[in-house]
Amino acid sequence: MILENKKEEVIRVEGVSFAYERVPALVNINLSVHRGDFLAIVGPNGSGKTTLLKIMVGLLKPGQGRVWLFQQPLEDFNQWYRIGYIQQKATNFDQIFPISVAEVIAASLNSISRPQKPGRGQVRQKILEALRTVGLENEAGKSMNSLSGGQQQRVLIARALATEPEILLLDEPTTGVDYPSQENFYDLLGQLNRQKHLTIVLVTHDYGIVNRHINRVACLNQKLFYHGEHAEFCQSDSFRELLQGGHHLISHRH
Amino acid sequence: MSGDLIFSSLFLRALLAGGCLALACGLLGVFLVLRRDAMISHGLSHVAFAGVALGLALNLMPVVFSVVISLAGSLLILRLKEQARLPGDTAIALLSSGGLALAVFLMSIKKDFGAELMAYLFGDILAIGPSEVYLAVGLAVVVSAGIFLNLSRFIFMTFDREAASVSGIGLKGLDRLLVMMSAVTIVLGLRIVGLLLVTGLTVIPAAAALQLARNFRQALLLSSLFSLLSILGGIVLAYVLNLPASAAIIFLALFIFILGFLFKRLKGQQTM
Ligand SMILES: Nc1ncnc2c1ncn2[C@@H]1O[C@H](COP(=O)(O)OP(=O)(O)OP(=O)(O)O)[C@@H](O)[C@H]1O
Ligand SMILES: [Mg+2]
């Protein structure tokens, strides 16, 4: 706020290391995300992308290092309505679960505590709005398990958008979504990023599709070996490796 | 043969207490089944039984004593799951055998309450006194309020625990609330259908509802409805046919489940 051209740091990861039962998954990660960024985190399977995202949202506690959200230490942070998170394989829920599309979104909207709690009519409004954004406005009453995997994924994205977060963290959100829908989806993210200044952190293997929307890249494989501007990334060794080897940095879609 | 009984205060008391229990079981059951926590009621029923035995041994109100012990037991199950890194069913097995062992031990040192304790093993709806009816009404109100006040959070947490965790709702507190409400409900159920059948009471109506419900509101409604039908219908059947009420209740619940299952099969075939 002091310097106009210096954007607010909304996520800061400092010296973070993490191990599952002594097997290191992340080693000394330093990374920061500023308001309005569209950051893509890329790396092969098992490189620690999901682990890093989970640390950023407080699902895992780092063994070493610290995380700040909106300049508050994560341990003290309580404004979770500002954060939206879509985990990897989010559609792996119980298929016998009886719940309608609208109920999925309502449960989250009504649970999250925020300064101004939306009224009943507003909740309805927000649900429909969010569903419209992902093109599912006619499915509000349908039961979740009657939708296709790709549609379910879009419902979960709508759920994250409905709470109007300032940062959206997504872990391979388009797994199981067909190619045109993937493009639509990333266009939507790009639009939210540009027009509503939504900060986006995206873990993805689809570098080819997202590259025209993102402005920052982080290449991860236990250690962070590139973190910076997208434009510079295109001149870096990491990018060359990405183009040549492919599988070193980015594994192919499953 | 039982016409005079139908209008007796004994019978009305049984219906009132049963109805309250039904509501609590129907609502809680949906969450327990979907959380894969159905066997929690099994474990808690054994702990509650030990509580009853302890109450009888100390000449304290067994139901009140049992509520306290089951509440403690419910928190212990959660603790074991979290801290001893035990799978949930193992934690429950520890506690249920511990509870039963305690009850057996107490029975052996104080032999004269065997018959009274039997009433809790198989349920004895006629033994319900006026004060227990108040307790049943009170507890049913508490459980229903506990669920409705936290409904969205419970749904969110049950459907998607990870996302719910990131949304900053206190999962641990909600887990605790849910098992504590289960504990209270189980104690009531112990009185009506007994230790051996109370698990069925919390699980079967919810399982039947899941056959038919297309959204969560329907699941809660149907589960409560089936639970009410089973308990009230079972009590009436028991009087009319001179059956043990607990057996009649569980038979009826199973019958509804089978109907629900068949209905779903039929509907499924039509749409194919
Ligand atoms: N729950 C867990 N217990 C033990 N090890 C784990 C666990 N989760 C992940 N790991 C290990 O940690 C490393 C990083 O896993 P992570 O899931 O963060 O990778 P990723 O980059 O998200 O992979 P993918 O592209 O397949 O999603 C892997 O070696 C993995 O085997
Ligand atoms: Mg991953």
In short:
The complex is a heterodimer of chains A (254) and B (272). Chain A has 254 residues and is α/β, with parallel strands linked by helices.
Q: What characteristics describe this protein?
A:
heterodimer; A: alpha/beta; Rossmann fold; 6-stranded mixed sheet; 4-stranded antiparallel sheet; B: about 270 residues; mainly alpha; ABC transporter involved in vitamin B12 uptake, BtuC; about 0% strand; binds magnesium ion
> Pairing-aware structural class of the strands and helices of chain A?
alpha/beta
The separation of the N and C termini of chain B measures 50 Å
Largest chain-chain contact? A-B, 34 and 25 residues
Element-level helix/strand string of chain B: HHHHHHHHHHHHH
- Bin the strand percentage of chain B: under 5%
Overview of this structure, please?
- The complex is a heterodimer of chains A (254) and B (272).
- Chain A is 31% helix and 25% strand.
- Chain A has 8 helices and 10 strands.
- In chain A, α2 (101-111) packs parallel to α4 (149-162) and α3 (120-133) packs across α4 (149-162).
- The termini of chain A are far apart.
- Chain B is built from 13 helices and no strands.
- Chain B has one domain (3-264): Orthogonal Bundle (ABC transporter involved in vitamin B12 uptake, BtuC), CATH 1.10.3470.10.
- Chain B has helices at 3-6, 9-34, 38-57, 62-83, 88-109, 114-122, 130-149, 151-159, 161-166, 171-192, 198-212, 216-241, 245-271.
- Chain B is mainly alpha-helical and 272 residues long.
- At the A-B interface, β6 and α2 of A face α8, α9 and α12 of B.
- The structure holds adenosine-5'-triphosphate and magnesium ion.
- Residues 49-50, 88, 171 of chain A line the site of magnesium ion.
- The site of magnesium ion has 4 residues of chain A, from α1.
